[in-house]
Each structure stands twice: as C-alpha cells, then as structure tokens.
Specification:
With 661 residues, the protein is α/β, with parallel strands linked by helices. 60% of the residues lie in helices and 8% in strands.
Length: 661
C-alpha cells in the first residue's frame, strides 16, 4: 500500500471496538475466576466477599473509563498516557508510563493467548499436553494477520468479538432468568467442598484484609487494555476524538455489564474453583489427573444443559477465540506506542517505520518474539503469568490521571468563559478521583503481588526505562557530534588521496578493482598483498610482471600468517606519515546467489573491512564481482514484499500492481 493510502485504513467505530477494546471485553472470561481463585484459598467461607469485590472493580472501571474519555478529548494525537505524563509531569514520568505500558502489552498477549488455550483445553481436555505449542501457534497467527494492516485485522477480528459479546449476554440473561423462575443453574463444581490452603487457615484481622485486597487486585485484570483507545485516536475516522470517546463509552458499558453478569451468575451457580484440584473435597479419582474447567465453561455447561450442549461449545469456541484475539489490543497499542517513542528517539528508529501494508511491522514482530518467549518460559500457564500482569497498566493510569489534573489547572488559569470553566472543573474532579483511586489500587497490587512474581514486571519496566534513556542519550550525542558547525572547514578537501587495492591473486575481480580505483584519479595508486605463503607471493609477483600491470605491487611480509593486522599496520603507518592525506582502500568481493556460498567466500574481506572502518582518515570501498549463481537472485518474485514501494516497474494482474519480470 502506498503512503497516500493511509487515510483508507482509518477505522469506523464498529471496527475500532473489537480492535482496541477486545482485551477489556474479553477479560470477563477470567477476571471473575481470578477473584474466586484467591478467595477459595481460605475455603468456601470467604466467597461471600465476591459481590463486594466485584462491585469495587465495577466502580473502578467506571472511574477509569470516564477519566480516559477526558484524555481522548484533550490529547487526540495518539500518545495517550505517555503524552499526558510527558507534557504535564516531565519526560522521566512519561518514560515510566511508556515502560510500564510496553511491559503490560507484552503481558496482554501472553495472558490472553494462555487463557484462550485454557478454554480450548476445557472443551477438549486431551489437548492439555499441547498447551505451549498451541499458544505459540496462535501468537504466530496473530502476528501474520496484524502484518496485513490495521483495517484487515479489524475485519478479521470483528465477528468473533461480537459473537462473544452476544454469547455471554445470552448466557447471563438465560441463567439469571432461570434463577428468577426458581430453576437456578448449578455448576459442576458446586457439589465439591474446598479445604483451606494450609497457610490461610483461620484468617482474621490483617490476614483477612490482605486476602480480600489480593482478590481485588486479581479482579482488576478486567481493566487491562482500557487505555488502548486513547493511544489509537489517530486510527479513527473523523471526528477522531468524538468517535474514540464514543467507542470508549461503549466498551465500558459492555465490559461492566458482562463482568457483573458473569460474577453474579457464578455466585448463583455456586462455582467452586481452586488452584490445586487436590483441595477439592468429594472428588472421586486421582486429583492430580483432574482438570478443572474454567468458570466461564462451568457456567455455560450449567446454563445450556451440560458439556455436550450446543450452547456450551458455542461459548467455549467464542471465548477461546476472543481471548486469543484480545491480544490484538496489544498488537495495536505496542507498535503505535513504540513508534511514538522511536520518533522521540527513545527506541530504535526502525520501530517508527511502517511496513508494506502501512502497519508498524517491526513493532509487531518485536512484540510477538518477546511474548512468545514468555509463553514458552512460563509454559503458557495463566496463573503464573497473571502475577506479572496489571502492574504496568495501573502505573500508567495513576500518572496519566495526575498529569490530566495539571492539564486542567493550566487550562483554568487562562480560561475566562464560565461555561467552559465549569466543564474544566468537572473534568478535573473526574481525573483527580481517577488518580487517587488508581494510585490506591497500584499500592494494593504491589503489596499483594510483588513477592508472587510482580517484581519481575517491575524489574523489566525499570530496565526498559534505563535502556530508553540510554538510547535517547546516544541519539542526542550522535546528533551533536554530527552537527555542522563550520561548513567551510568541513568542506576542505584532503591534501592527497592515496589509493590501495587489496590483492590475493590476479583474476578478473582484481583487475576490475584496479580499473575502478584508477577511475578515481588518486594522487597515488598501489596494489597491496600479504605474503602469508612466500612461494605464493613470489608467483603473484611473477604473474603481475608477466601481465604488464602498470601499478606497483607492495608485498607485506607476515611471518605469523596474519593478514588483517599487517594491512592495518601498513595503512596506519601511511596515516602517521601524512595525517592530512586520505587513504582509500578498494576491496574486491564476490557476489553470490546462495546464503551458504557466503560461508565459502569474503570472510577475510569482511573482517578486514570491519577493522578498517574504525581507522580515522580511511575510506573503504567494496568492488563487487557477480558470480554466475547471483544471476537468479536478480529476478524477485511477482509478489516480492515492497516491490511497489521500491518503485519497480509493474503491471496490472487481477486488479493489483505486480512487478514485471
């Protein structure tokens, strides 16, 4: 796609919702489960805290959604939390937000895919041994689809997201209706009791408070990805801010409704789920071989008539699919944020480049590689990965909302219109409330999850923060070093140009390099060889004389058979004698058509060239000689990536431009 076609990739709200909000919408599939898993550490007695914890999560999500609607209107350029924090709190705070979000986006992919695989295993338990393989294959599939472009990925993911929303709402509605008419659904785990975890028996006082706070922090996974829309405002159709704010409101209403419904239904159906199946009482058979179904799977089976019902398989398929596709929120947020950071010189500039389909391909690939390694290291286990999750997102929530308070303070100092001031005051109250609440949640998350693995997320964000500062320092130092201070002095030519052609034997590449060096009309030209083998050096001198080559041949003696050191020392000796002269070294090289042929040629030249490049006052020129095998590499395939962008001649085929042969 040409750069001018970028406008055609802008998203309507119906596609933007599944692209940017699939993560918070899909989190209802595991947020309730995470609350129950923590509460059942104390046995069944503490499940009565579930509705209160769920209510707190709903209230928090409402505050965060309202707060980010303010961000969308105030900062529509797409930087989201990073731009808000950088503008209002300073670059260091902005980098804290950026590092936290980048880590959280990686975790979004890992947790979403792992949770999706869990739901597939709930439907087909025999696949449990292929958990990691399935997770990695899904990451590869998501990567391939996203490399096709934002609009294409939205069209591919829209239907599964809407099917999941419809399925969950139908399941919740049916289950609650049955409860109201006296036929409440009963989960398959309702018949089991739960033995308290040995470390959590007789919870009271501070221990009970910590258990409830830990369950709340686990339930806050429902908020992950809420900020993605604020990062993706430029991807919306005009009016961008209004469309983004509307999409965020729709996302909040749908997510809150589904989360509250699933949690209520789990309480009604008496879902009993634990981390270790051996703590279930009344379980027949070997507990080590028992695979518990997820909460969403148990609810679907209880509402729709068992594990073999059509409704059960529909919910499981839709849940697994949308959980895997929920990673798409990160596939859009991570590359976009990385592109902005690269533009600001905090990440490698390659991350700012768009690929052939106008997607940030390098960012997409980087995300896929890191998330894949994480899934492999943690064996795609949701419970292990979840402890590394949500820390980053609440860091960004807190700093961005604090930054928005400063933003409104600055606006109020200059605004005189009473109506506008009233709106600004209301917006400041919303953002201040969001800052306080999310800061409290961040403290709770740190306190309850730090020792369980969250310290790794903190460490990763810290290392990333230091790395980005180091990259910015490098780019700044490089720019300062390369800046032109006096054009006249920088344009002064060297006193003389001394050309050296490296020679190993007399053949066509050598003669081409000599002819090419002559074309530069240097002040002095000589050929240079290293006498690793004395007999071969004598034979080369004889052949040189017999061919009548009118270029002096310099032979360097190398008793220790070392080529690179001898050439470097000779070149440096010339520079010491004439510091104002430039030495131009011409190196004949083979061009081959197969990767393995490179292993057979050019190794000495490659090493020598890499060393010469570090020598001041030395220019290195490669003179290629194309071997016959390289001819086949000169005809790219008809669908070679980037051929149109590179300006290769094309013709129409099936309505598309393809390169001419």
């Amino acid at each position: 796609m040409r750069s001018e076609e970028l406008g055609g990739t802008l998203l309507p709200k119906r596609l933007a919702l599944p692209i940017f909000a699939s993560d918070p919408l899909s989190s209802v599939a595991y947020a309730t489960q995470e609350i129950l898993l923590v509460l059942t550490l104390g046995g069944l007695a503490y499940l009565h805290f579930t509705p209160w914890i769920a209510g707190a999560v709903v209230a928090l999500m409402t505050v965060v959604v309202l707060s980010y609607r303010q961000v969308v209107h105030a900062y529509p350029s797409g930087g989201g939390s990073y731009e808000v924090a950088s503008t209002n709190l300073g670059p260091s705070a902005g980098l804290v937000v950026a590092a936290s979000l980048l880590v959280d986006y990686v975790m979004t992919v890992a947790v979403s895919v792992a949770s999706g695989v869990d739901n597939i295993i709930s439907a087909v338990p025999s696949l449990v041994d292929y958990r990691v393989l399935m997770a990695l294959l899904f990451v590869a599939l998501l990567t391939a689809i996203n490399l096709r472009g934002v609009r294409e990925s939205g069209q591919a993911f829209a239907a599964p997201t809407y099917l999941f929303i419809a399925g969950v709402l139908i399941m919740v509605g049916t289950g609650l209706f049955r409860y109201l008419v006296g036929d409440a659904p009963v989960a398959e785990s309702a018949k089991y009791g739960i033995e308290p975890d040995p470390g959590d028996v007789d919870l009271a006082g501070l221990a009970l408070v910590m258990l409830v706070l830990r369950a709340f922090s686990s339930g806050c996974t429902a908020l992950t990805g809420v900020e993605a829309i604020s990062n993706g405002v430029p991807a919306f159709r005009k009016p961008k801010s209004r469309n983004a704010a509307t999409t965020m409101a729709a996302m909040g209403i749908i997510a809150i409704t589904m989360f509250a419904g699933v949690t209520t239904l789990a309480i009604v159906a008496k879902v009993h789920i634990v981390e270790d199946a051996c703590r279930l009482t009344g379980l027949t058979g070997d507990c080590d071989d028992y695979t518990q179904r997820t909460v969403i799977a148990q609810l679907a089976a209880s509402v729709f008539g068992g594990e073999n019902s059509v409704g059960f398989y529909y919910i499981q398929a839709a849940t697994a699919l949308v959980l895997i596709l929920a990673a798409n929120t990160a596939y859009n947020g991570f590359p976009l944020l990385a592109s902005i950071l690269a533009q600001h010189r905090y990440l490698p500039r390659q991350l700012h480049n768009r690929g052939d389909r106008l997607a940030f391909s390098n960012g997409i690939l980087a995300l896929a590689i890191v998330a894949g390694l994480l899934l492999w290291a943690y064996k795609a286990n949701v419970t292990s990965l979840i402890h590394l999750y949500i820390l980053g997102v609440f860091t960004s929530f807190t700093l961005s909302q604090t930054g928005m308070v400063r933003h409104w303070n600055r606006e109020l100092r200059t605004e005189t219109d009473p109506e506008v001031r009233r709106r600004h005051h209301l917006a400041r109250v919303i953002n201040a409330t969001g800052a306080v609440v999310t800061c409290l949640v961040l403290v709770i998350v740190l306190a309850t999850k730090f020792t369980q693995g969250a310290w790794l997320a903190v460490l990763a964000a810290t290392v990333l923060w230091l790395m980005m500062r180091g990259i910015r320092r490098h780019y700044d130092n490089t720019s300062a070093e390369l800046a032109v201070t006096d054009p006249r002095s920088d344009l002064v030519p060297p006193s003389r140009v001394l050309a050296i052609v490296l020679v190993s034997t007399v053949h066509k590449p050598t003669l081409r390099a000599l002819a090419y060096a002559r074309a530069f009309r240097p002040d002095r030209l000589e050929a240079l060889t290293v006498a690793v083998d004395r007999d071969a050096a004598v034979a080369l001198q004889r052949q040189w004389h017999d061919f009548g080559i009118q270029v002096p041949l310099k032979v360097l003696d190398s008793p220790y058979r070392e080529i690179t050191g001898s050439v470097l020392e000779y070149v440096r000796s010339i520079r010491r004698e004439s510091p104002r002269d430039v030495v131009a070294v011409f190196i004949p090289e083979y061009v081959v058509g197969h990767w393995w042929e490179n292993l057979l040629h050019n190794q000495s030249a490659l090493w020598l060239k890499s060393r010469l490049l570090f020598t001041p006052g030395v220019m290195v020129t490669s003179v290629p000689w194309q071997l016959s095998s390289s001819a086949r590499a000169d005809h790219p395939a008809a669908r070679a990536p980037g051929s149109v962008r590179r300006g290769e001649p094309t013709k129409k085929r099936d309505g598309e431009d393809v390169p001419l042969p």
